Every structure is written in C-alpha cells, then in structure tokens.
Amino acid sequence: MTTRRLFFPRLAALAAASFLLSATLPALAQEGAAPVLPDLTDDNVVDVMTRAVDDVIRPGYHAFEASAGTLAQATEAFCKAPSQASRTSVDDAFRQAVADWGRIEIVRIGPVLDDNRFERILFYPDRKSTGLKQVQALLQKQDEADADAAAMAGKSVAIQGFGALEFALYGTGSQTLMETPESFRCRYAAAVATHIRATAGQLAAAWEAPDGVQRDWKHPGPQNPVFRTGKEAVTALLGILVHGAEAVRDQRIETFYRHGGTARPKSAVFWRSGNTWTSIDANIEGLHMLFDKSGMVGLIDPNFVSIGGNIDFVLKSLHRVAPTIDTDIEKAVSTPEEQQKIAFLLVNTRDLILRLNGEYGGAMGLGAGFSFADGD
Fold this sequence. Notes:
- The protein has 14 helices and no strands.
- By secondary structure, it is mostly helical.
- 62% of the residues lie in helices and 0% in strands.
- Helix 3 packs parallel to helix 10.
C-alpha cells in the first residue's frame, strides 16, 4: 500500500513538470530573438556523428552479438540437459538479449535493412499472426531441415527471429521442453538462437569495417554516397530518434493498448516471456543514449540549450516509469494503477516526438514546415 501512495504523487509530479516544460520554447521565442542556426558543415557534425557511431552504435551491436551468443549457448545446453538450472539460464539469457537488441533496435537504417536483417531478428508487429501460424505448423511437422541453423537464412523471416524463439521457449506446449533431452522443439529453438547470433555478428562486422558504413557516417561530404552534407547526416540522426520514439508509442504500446479502447494484451511484443516492458524500456534507453552520448545538444544555439534539457527530462521520466509496470501484460492493461503508468508513457512519448521533431528540429534549422512524420 505504501508503494501505491508514493507512486501516484510522483507520477503526477512528473506529468506536471512535463506540462510546464512544454511552454519553454514559446516563452524563449517571445522574450528574445530566434536561435542562431548552427553551421552543419563544420567539425561539430563530424564529432557528433563519430560519437554516435563509436560510443553508441558499434558498442550496441557488439553487446547484442555477445548476448545473442550467450543465448545460443544457453539454449543448446538446456536442450542437452533440461533442468531447472539450465532453464533459468535460458530465461536470463533471453531477457538480456531482448534488452540488448532493444537498445540498438532504434537504429532502423544502414546494414540492418540489408537482406531483411531487421525482420530476421524481430518480425513484429505480426498483425495477421503469420509467424505464429508458420511456427506452429513447423513444430507439428518436425522436419529436421527446420532445425538446421545454417539453412535458416533461406527460409521465411517469420520463423527465424525472436518471435519464433519466444514461442518455442514460452508458447503453448513449451512445458514439454523439460521432459525430453534434445526434443525437436528445443533443437529448433537452439537453431533459431544460433541464427540470431549469426545475424548479430553480421551487423557488428558491417559497422566495424573502417571503409564501410562507419566511414560514410563519420565523414559527410560531396563524394559521400550516404550523406552529402553535414545537415543530411544530423537530420538522419534526428530521424532515428523521432522514428524510434514513434515506434515505441505506435508499434510497441498502441499495438496492444490505447487509452479508452479495447486492450489486446496478446498483441504485445514478448508477452509470452514477460519481457514486453524489458523491450520497451530498452528502446527508451537506446534513444537516451544516442541523444546524450552523441552530443547532439551541442549543435544548437547555446541560448536554447534548455531544449536539450527538456528532451533529457522526458526520456528520464519514461525510463523511470516503464520498468515499474507489471510484467504480466494482461494484469497491466486491466489494473487501474498500471493503466495510469501506460497512459503516462503514451502522453510523454507523444511529447518526446514533438520536442525532437519540432523544437530540436527547428533549433537545428530544419525549417518550420519540416516534419519527419510527413515523410520530409
């Protein structure tokens, strides 16, 4: 009871502070001149893009590769000798891999789009249950070729990523995994985990190559095939943040919960394993890391540095609330206290999008009519 009494005033305080902060930019505009637009062709852009690559993106993919490797090893060991201890190791490794993927998942451009790698890692949202149907049919058929990690790249993306692995480990019938060593279902799960590790390794290697994507990101210029100007480069970086925040709101939360609407808890990502909020919080953490560690706030007029402070505040508020929501997604969408927390996330992710797209974008010189949401 004490926790409930303390939480709601704290939640209300966060919401009130967020509302007050929304007036900051208009007030500044009324009191003084418009911000001095930055020179997005100077060394500052190179510094920001370099920090984004070296301090966030490359380490992010390496962390995911490592945890995916641990997950593959844990799943293989569990299949050979099912026990409560080996099962716990799988659960822990799965949660860590979900979190590490969630932090870098926000980078939805670059090598992750090649060869459908993004969908190979996570096929979601799956509105027509395509993946579920394919995995269920595969488990019923028990074709040994489907438990071959090396052959998985040539198969449907719906049967080779986290969604398929989660159903194999946590879905209907998964209790049988404890009964028989080296069952087909478990060996299929191990093959999927191994394939996720291989895909993670491809992404880490692509970003590690000094003459590849990291060079293009760090050195915008007329001969650069990706970013011809500094403005193009930082606009793409801002786009990652805007679209990442939109994905949290639209694809992660509103897919299963809209305030006042009918909740669909079984449409939530990772609901079977209880990792919905693990994934969403990791997305938020990834956005925060990219904004902070890249030093993006240094690209705008120092007189308007409060814009960066406001964005930082909203991200911290989201990160503070998300991990406190009940991991049982059905309870979360039906309990008033948990509903208020989810509503808080929806309101503040919308606020975050407006601050990034409007306030920061405007201070960066993208123009009043510019909007990532409009596809500009």
